[in-house]
Write a structure and sequence with these properties.
Blueprint (H helix, E strand, L loop, with lengths): L17 E4 L6 E6 L10 E7 L15 H11 L6 E7 L21 H7 L16 H13 L1 E3 L15 E3 L2 E3 L2 E6 H6 L9
Parallel strand pairs: 3-4
Antiparallel strand pairs: 1-2, 2-3, 4-8, 5-8, 6-7
Amino acid sequence: RAMGEITVMVKNSIAKYFKRVCFDFSFGVVLIIDKQLFSFDRDILYVSLYILPESSTYYSKITNSAFQELKELMINNNYLNTELLLCWDFNSRTASLPDYITCSDNIPELEELNCITNNDIGIERVSCDTKTNKFGHELLNFCKFFSCFIVNGRFDCKNENGGFTFINQNGCSVIDYYIVSKTIFDIISIFEIKSR
C-alpha cells in the first residue's frame, strides 16, 4: 500500500461483535459490526479511511479513486443493506455544500431527507472551510448515492462554524469526517471538533 497504516482498536468486552472484512481494500480498514451491539435492524459497515491527497503520485498507478473502490466494495460484497459508518482522513474539502439530493418536487424516494429534516438537527451543515476540491465533490456524490450524511457541522454546539480538522503552517481545512447512515445519525446527540 502507498499509505501509512490505520489501526482500529476494539475493547475485548465487545470484540465478538466485530469482524474484519475486505482485507484488500487499499484505502483503509473495513469491519462489519453486528447489529446486536446497538440493537439495530441491520449490521454496520464501518470503514476507517485514509485517502491520499489529490496531488499524490499514487493516483497515476491506479484506475479507480478511493470512492469508486469503496462503492465497488459495497456493491460486490453485498453491503448495500447495511448501516454505514465512515470516518477519518478523506482529504476531501466539501465547504458547506449539501450531501443530499436537492429538488423542488416532493419525491417519495427522498424519505431519508424528510426524516432528517423532521429531527431537531438541521439539514444544513456549517463548515468553516469555504473551499472544495475534486475529492470533496466525489465525497458529496457518494453521500447522495448511498443516502448517508456528514456529521461534521451539524451537531457541534460549541463551534458554530464546523471546526477545522487540519491545521498547519500553510492553512486550515476540514478534511476529516464522520459520515453515517440515517439510523446512526439518529443516535448522535453531540459531535464536536476539539480545538488544539
